[in-house]
Design goal:
By secondary structure, the protein is mainly α. It has helices spanning 19-50, 53-69, 71-80, 83-107, 113-136, 146-172, 188-207, 223-235, 237-253, 259-266, 271-294, 301-321, 325-352, 359-388, 390-411, 413-416, 423-426, 448-457. The relative contact order is 0.15.
């Protein structure tokens, strides 16, 4: 049953008329602020200890590997158990991990291996919380406001990505000796204290949600049940095309792991400069998210997706070639603005194109693609930067993202021609089904097989 709004909706802010959506997004703000600030502290600690790009890449690998190992069970857990409870357990694990980072820092850290060990546990928590979090959103708002909810979710994510890294860089450089005599809290230590506070507030807010989605999948774990999400995505050219596009574009074009090198060696900035670089993509994305919330697009979603992916690749190339802080920030902001449009489209495709009882398992498969593009992409960036240097690795990656956008537009014409973001338009329909209200006269029933045939013809 869809939730009822507690407040009259305002144009462009319809999703905020629902109490649980408001609380969950407030919880996300605090958690992402803490996580992004913590990421800056971890990156700076690792680079300060080793001064090697490859070691920065290993941080991404440590976060990615648990997602690969726990891909299938994480999706089944999200569909089998109360998704809210799964999120609470996973973020409780994040509290323990951040506490471990704080204790290691206070003890005096001279090796990166303990950091990698903690990151493996953080990645494990994310592997299970990611599918549950994605599958929870459709329970917080009715379907007619889902795209608006995804758009605002993206805006909130980007706001936190602006503030979190900058806040992390600021906290890292605070002269705490004027306030307290415990010098072990300076630098990364104070950042980890802030992250612990943000995680605690997240747990309080999520625990207060009224939404109780319960179990969506009632079958016990079996290979067939666990694999259902993977099989569903493989049969849908829309979902497979969108997820694999994100995988390869960000895998090649992501330069997040190399930002400490650009900040320190190329732009000659300190931790605050690193915070600005980390925040710049989110600044552009936030502006775009707010614009889309007020003026949402209704049609031609697939074409917009590919255009924005191409802009993202071009922005990455410009960032790699820049030796000016302000030009670098502008290029990253443009790339972030383009990326947020594709994120909103892909997120809507994933949730609206998947039956409710399978969203956890399909989201788990999609989380693997996202994890591979982000965390494994950081590992790839570290390796290529070790071989070619940071500038060349970033430029080649941006050119690769442009090439993938063109290739995927040819390989997945169904994705390229996707129009409306509604469940009626996106989910495969059984043969003999009645046309949706307002469907054109050329409409005919769509199945997974006929969808594949359509793609072949085009």
């Amino acid at each position: 049953m869809n939730p009822l709004p507690q407040n009259p909706p305002v144009r462009g802010m319809e999703a905020f008329g629902f109490r649980d959506f408001r609380r969950y997004q407030l919880a996300r703000v605090t958690a992402i602020l803490g996580a992004e600030a913590q990421a800056v502290a971890v990156a700076w600690q690792v680079y300060s200890i080793t001064h090697r790009a490859l070691d920065l890449g290993y941080t991404g690998l440590a976060l990615f590997l648990p997602g690969l190992v726990f891909l299938l069970p994480a999706g089944h857990v999200a569909d089998r158990f109360d998704r809210r409870q799964v999120i609470l357990v996973c973020y409780g694990m994040q509290v323990l991990c951040t506490t471990a980072l704080l204790l290691l820092t206070r003890a005096g850290l001279h090796s990166v291996y303990p950091i990698y060990a903690v990151l493996l546990f953080i990645g494990t928590g994310r592997a299970f919380s990611g599918p549950a979090s994605s599958a929870l959103i459709p329970h917080l708002v009715p379907e007619r406001h889902f795209v608006n909810a995804v758009t605002w979710g993206g805006a909130i994510w980007q706001f936190s990505n602006i503030t979190g890294p900058a806040l992390g860089g600021l906290l890292f450089t605070l002269p705490l000796t004027r306030l307290v005599h415990d010098t072990s809290l300076e630098g990364a230590g104070i950042v980890y204290v802030f992250t612990l506070g943000s995680l605690g507030w997240f747990l309080v807010l999520v625990a207060s949600l009224h939404t109780r989605p319960g179990r969506m999948e009632h079958k016990a774990a079996s290979l067939r049940v666990v694999m259902a999400g993977f099989q569903y995505m493989m049969r849908s050219s829309l979902l497979l095309g969108a997820s694999s596009l994100d995988l390869f574009v960000v895998l090649l074009g992501g330069a997040t792991a190399l930002m400490p090198i650009f900040a320190h060696d190329i732009l000659h900035q300190g931790p605050r400069g690193l915070g600005l670089l980390r925040a710049a993509p989110a600044a552009g994305a936030l502006i775009m998210s707010l614009t889309m919330a007020r003026f949402p697009f209704r049609r031609r979603a697939g074409l917009r997706l590919f255009v924005c992916v191409a802009i993202f690749g071009a922005g990455t190339v410009a960032f790699g070639l820049s030796h000016s802080l302000w030009l670098s920030l502008a290029a990253l902001a443009v790339a972030g603005a383009a990326d947020t449009v594709s994120v909103i489209i892909r997120g809507s495709l994933l949730q609206l194109g998947t039956p409710p009882e399978m969203r956890g398992r399909v989201s788990a498969v999609n989380s693997l693609f996202i994890g591979a593009s982000n965390e494994l992409g950081e590992f790839e960036s570290g390796i290529t930067a070790q071989w070619w240097g940071a500038v060349r690795a970033t430029v080649v990656g941006g050119v690769g993202a442009l090439a993938v956008a063109g290739l995927w537009a040819a390989l997945f014409p169904g994705l390229r021609n996707a129009d409306e973001l509604t469940s009626q338009a996106l989910r495969p329909r059984p043969a003999g089904a009645a046309p949706p209200v307002g469907a054109p006269t050329s409409w005919r029933p769509l199945t997974a097989a006929s969808e594949k045939a359509d793609d072949t013809k085009q």
